[in-house]
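User: For my dataset I need records formatted as: sequence, then structure tokens, nothing else. Please produce one.
Assistant:
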Amino acid sequence: MAELSPDMRRLIDDAVAAGQVQVVAPGVSALPLPVWDGTNLRYPEGAPRGAIGWKKGGGTRRARSVPSHVAARRAAFRRHWTPDITAAAMGRLLGASAQVARDDARAVDLPLAREQRGPNTGIACRRAHVAALLAGDNPPATRAALLAQVRLRFPDTTHEGLRGDRRALGHSFEPADRMRARMRTIERRRDRVADLTARRVPVRDICRLLGVSDHTVRADLDARGLCTAPTRRRRAPGKGATGKGAAS
């Protein structure tokens, strides 16, 4: 270590004489040390950034200073705390979320009571509102119209949530007779696909005859317990082989 110059030594002596710096013995830290509370090493409130840490997992952990608004909120936590208070109730008292209340509870080492979970009243209220809309004099005719009306009262409603409500209520936008007619049409098409397949008609020709896609034909064959070999994609005309074996 380099020796201090006379000017630097004079500045240090003047600062010590004026009380601007603190003199500590070699090997002693002037920063606060963590205190073992039986489960964890905790730093005192207001410890400065850079306080000496402790070894854990091969690394040195350092204390972080607590902002003033966090310290004030945790002081309010201690004032409002009771053995039967929950995280949601404490969050309302602190003007914060339940998760912030849980974090403060861990920081000040005060347990919060478990919340009694009951039926989801929000879903029940929304489902009752959906049932009232569907049973009204002018029910919505489409899923989008129903979702728009439900969101006027429950803005967080999603398509999946509304689908679950309609399933629980046994509602469908498609009338039963129309659904039965669709199923009869699908069954007739599957019979025709199976008959053409038995006559060894290629899948490509079946698609052209029935006006459906290749995927639909194969789905119909799967429904009938039949299977077909995958169709080979023909090479486009004019695009011959390239490479060493290609004719020039």
